[in-house]
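cron nightly-structures :: item 1 of 1
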Amino acid sequence: MERTLGYPLFKRDEIGVHPTERALAIYPAALDCMKGYQSFVQVADDQLLESKPIVRIGFADGIIDALPDDFLFQLEQECPYCQITVEKHYVNRCIDLLREDELDMVICSTPGSTAGLRERILTRFPIYVAIPRAIMDCSMREPTLEDLSHLEFFALGNDFPNDREVETLFDERGLPFRMNTQYNDYDIILNEVRRGRGCTFVPATCVDAIRCASVQIVDFPLRNHTWNIGLYYEEGLHAHATQQVIDAICAHFPVTQPHAEKHRAALAQ
């Protein structure tokens, strides 16, 4: 400012820094300018708050249980100038709405098709196997893929990469994979497993939902096989508010396998 005005505003010596007479003379005007600027910023902030752009997020069924309890609260704190709306759908319906521009982004397990979409894997969870005790052999506490090939598994179907990947693992080893896809709702599948009608694969986030006296939970034979949760959105440029939400979500999710050891310790008890 001194360079702009063309004269010094402070005396600087070995004792310290002191305002000059000219500085004292312009101080009231400078104070008014600061108050005016603060008022301007406040008005601008108020306008942003009153006209918050809407950012639409779709959650696939079951995803909310995999997110931190304060996920939405933290997201709203970091993106105060956005109005975040959330709706829940079947995973493939979420992707359809995203492609139809009815949603800005989707958080889900890997969908059937990601063509034209950006994928950001947020986190990975261990996979377990839920087997009714009525059909489980005691030797299957740590089953192999060959052991599992003799059982029938309820699954959402070939449209889902997680199920396709499991089928591929069996096929590569020349083993049959008996997949029952008559139910396309995971809650129904879990209920059928409790009734002893078949087995299913369970991500770590759903272990508590299926844990009961009639069902044994065991490790999936290949521990590097995980259930992935990703953020999906259209390729290309996005509105500032949408990009801000995307960046905030990605910043909160280092790609890890949360609570893997905790879940395995609980299963061992």
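cron nightly-structures :: done
Residues 125-226 form a domain with the D-Maltodextrin-Binding Protein; domain 2 fold (CATH 3.40.190.10).
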